[in-house]
Prior knowledge:
The protein is α/β, with parallel strands linked by helices and about 280 residues long. It has helices at about 30-40, 60-70, 90-95, 135-145, 170, 180-185, and strands at about 5-10, 50-55, 80, 110-115, 120, 155-160, 190-195, 205, 210-215, 220, 235, 240-245, 255-260.
Amino acid sequence: MAARPILIAQISDLHVKPLGELAYGRVDTASAVVRCVAKLNWLRPRPELVVVSGDLVDTGLPEEYTHLRQLLAPLEIPLALIPGNHDAREPMRVAFPEQPYAPGSDALNFALALPELDILLIDSIVPGEPHGELGAQTLAWLDATLAASRTRPALLFVHHPPFVTGIQHMDQMNLRNAPTLAAVLSRHPRARLVAAGHVHRPVLTLFAGIAATICPAPNQSVALDLGDLGPPSFTMESLGFHLHAWFGGERYGELVTHFISLDVPAEGQPIIGDRA
Length: 276
């Protein structure tokens, strides 16, 4: 029997509005966060960490971050947050002063060391633009951070995917300098995962020879239009988040990613065995 894994939950694209407002005038993103937090607290065993991989709020307003912080307050698991293209760095620093980047003035990059695993949080935003790009300072930080160990596996989280999905209007807004990121990763085999958000759909591929995923959103999904047949639109399918399970072992261990659905509330889940 495999040893119990280290669990990292990833939620993404929360798009929280000011209190009482709906995203697109139709989507109650605040209620989606409430359901997401309840499901995260329900999980057993508990994840070591919850990563929010960008687009925390919808327009980067301070009041949106205040509302988001209230919604996340019941979460009983440590939290790490990086920005997406809908976010603004300075209001994030103010709203989450406990995050390691809060005292700084540069990109919101940081690394967390778990007992057997490193978590790298990467800021890919270009202020005022929907696409992503890793700046020279971020790339240098990432290269140096990965070079700091040859034995500890590392999971990377970033908002903008560094690969195409086939959904053309979203691919136009992905990470523009993905080949440069791939070159960095090729020098550091301890990198085991690139986990993104932005597309509001669960997606899996390989990038630079390692696993690469896109986390779904808890509120709405980008419509799966692989033929560019219609205007950008969203649906209410595949709402949930990802749970990354890392199992220790040789050659940086093994990683499995699970999709956790929000279709059934935590209180409606069947309980099998003793969960006390």
